[in-house]
């Protein structure tokens, strides 16, 4: 599967979430992290849900993860995104439960599996870098 | 447990309006039909209503999810009410009922009209398609995480289902059996949205929406309204023979937490249950509820629903006896409580479950937006 045919909708972005969406410009994924206790949080928020510290900053992560669940979507929900394509929840290597909703790309549908190791890659939309994952 | 708030309130009236996929009826008309129907069912004069609750109130959401709030109902019916609540205050759509019970328990109201109206069928038609209607959300802060990936609501159900299949070894045949049994039940329900049986083979050959979820795993958007009157248990104005009692409520975040709370508030056990009206926005949600409620073992839900004799109307545990949202339309949880009332009153006609006098479970919601009830 390739997603080069996609014309993805550009996500709404706020000042709080912009660093996440712009992170991929240098090929690295950055996730909001509590500077006090080290807990990663996604989506980014102004407070750490674990220790309640207010010092949150974006930090680079490995970009590695595993497929928590996946589905081959077969219905056209968005203009510019013709089905079929793979939607997945990917759990990042850095922290149990730290999951992103994403697409699996560059992989045959029947090869995708729960527990599969994946690596981040980015699809640029108008200056924003949409993190997607490949085997 | 003595002195629990559930003992203070009963359902004295219940009514489901006309409903369907192509009604072309003003949604406020549906609200009034259900409201007036429920008040009449309770045998009360309209002016006896002194409290109002609804879900989710007049808020921005996907189109067709609500038609008017408590102030609108108060104005339309010319009520002199003293207590209102009508947003999304509690976890779970039927939190509106729990709020009403608490108001009655605490003396803030004696008879609360609790209503819920949907008109998603019309709203999606007006928007041009289901995809356009669901994408027309004002909730950009949340949807930024899903929009660029082409994700819509059913995909969440598919992700749950895929993971559940992997961990439990469940099959599409088993889920198809649940859909087929619910369709059989719906054919005995005047509020059904389909007129033909659904064979398991039909389910297996259906087009996929999002693997492993097919269209028959998804509930059906309709227009319609449901209303209840929640009254003080000792009110002399209501018909004691027809009232439906709340044995226990589970109101918390998540299936297991709800179930744990509910069972902690009663001496009854899963063995006492006559039927289960389990939320089925997607079929997988009924299975997750079934397990969380302890009606079957962990990861045994697929096997459980795969036995149509067990979950059918004359089985050990009839499930979704009105057809559920898969075959009687998406009343968004309120339909499940309505069906429990009909069954407990012995008024379900041909679809009366054999165990009509046993307590019933009603569960609503998904993920972290959940509540459940034990009614008798």
Plain-language structure description:
- The complex is a heterodimer of chains A (135) and B (376).
- Chain A has 135 residues and is mainly β.
- In chain A, 4% of the residues lie in helices and 37% in strands.
- Chain A is built from one helix and seven strands.
- Chain A has one helix at residues 18-22, and strands at 30-34, 56-60, 64-73, 85-92, 99-104, 117-125, 128-134.
- In chain A, the strands form two sheets. Chain A has a five-stranded antiparallel sheet. Chain A has a two-stranded antiparallel ribbon with strand order 1-2.
- Chain B has 15 helices and eleven strands.
- The longest helix of chain B is centred in the N-terminal third of the chain and has 16 residues, at 27-42.
- In chain B, strand 10 (360-366) and strand 11 (369-375) form a beta hairpin.
- Chain B is globular and about 55 Å long.
- With 376 residues, chain B is α/β, with parallel strands linked by helices.
- A nine-stranded mixed sheet of chain B has the order 3-2-4-7-1-8-11-10-9, with helices on both faces. In chain B, strands 5-6 form a two-stranded antiparallel ribbon.
- The chains are: A mainly beta (135), B alpha/beta (376).
- Chains A and B meet through strand 3, strand 4, strand 5 and strand 7 of A and helix 5, helix 6, helix 7 and strand 5 of B.
